């Protein structure tokens, strides 16, 4: 949990240097970026792989990729 807080603070701190004070970066902002744009800004901001992962988990949730298959089907969808 502490790593998540540190990663978010690092992201906010780095973005604060690049954007006007009135602008905020939210998960909605992250999701609005294409994968290529996310990669670009991750490199510009110097985010580590661990920080990128924490942002993905926070903004997209844990049920992505291989974890998605572990979820039971919703009612009316699937078996």
List its salient traits.
79 residues; mainly alpha; 0% strand
How would you characterize this protein structure?
This protein has about 80 residues and is mostly helical. It has one domain (about 1-60). About 55% of the residues lie in helices and about 0% in strands. It has four helices and no strands. The longest helix has 17 residues, at about 1-20.
Residue share in helix: 55-70%
Structural class: mainly alpha
The beta-strand count equals: 0
User: What oligomeric arrangement do these chains adopt?
Assistant: single chain
Low-confidence stretches: 66-70
Number of domains: 1
Work out the radius of gyration: 15 Å
Shape: globular
Q: Tell me the number of helical segments per DSSP (H or I, 4 or more residues long).
A: 4
Distance between the termini: 36 Å
Portion in strands:
under 5%
The description of the largest β-sheet is: none
Mean pLDDT: 73
Order of helices and strands: HHHH
SSE topology:
Elements (H helix, E strand, L loop, with lengths): L1 H17 L8 H6 L2 H10 L4 H12 L19
Helix pairs in contact: 1-4
């Amino acid at each position: 949990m502490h790593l998540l807080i540190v990663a978010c603070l690092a992201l906010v701190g780095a973005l604060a240097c690049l954007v006007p004070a009135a602008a905020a970066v939210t998960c909605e902002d992250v999701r609005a970026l294409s994968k290529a744009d996310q990669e670009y800004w991750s490199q510009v901001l110097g985010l580590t792989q661990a920080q990128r992962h924490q942002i993905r988990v926070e903004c997209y949730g844990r049920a992505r990729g291989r974890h998605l298959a572990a979820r039971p089907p919703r009612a009316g969808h699937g078996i």
